[in-house]
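This part of the workshop introduces the protein records we will be handling. The question running through the whole workshop is how a given chain folds. To make this concrete, we reproduce a full record directly below:
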Amino acid sequence: QVQLVESGGGLVQPGGSLRLSCEASEFTLDYYAIAWFRQAPGKEREGVSCIESSDGSTDYADSVKGRFTISRDKTKNTVYLQMSSLKPEDTAVYYCAADLICNAGLKADFGSWGQGTQVTVSS
């Protein structure tokens, strides 16, 4: 399994921005599809975005399209989730996950997961 570590979460006001990072110390993330998921209290885990390893193509949940951007920095072995125009309903624990490919519908059947980072959007 790939060991993943998320960072960058925190408290932000509605309309604000945060950038989450997903790193792996012993694996090259460029070889994997990397996805971001989130889980709010009392709700199921929800797919947010995914980036393929083969061609860098991306996918987003409808709820975040136009506000979130997923990207890779190969030199830093890091995948980012840039979140803008944040809303209270974006509050959740955000997880990154790795597998061979992204899947249709951003389903949570990825093989490796990080521990998560809390994002709270509140005034």
Notes: The chain has a mean pLDDT of 95.
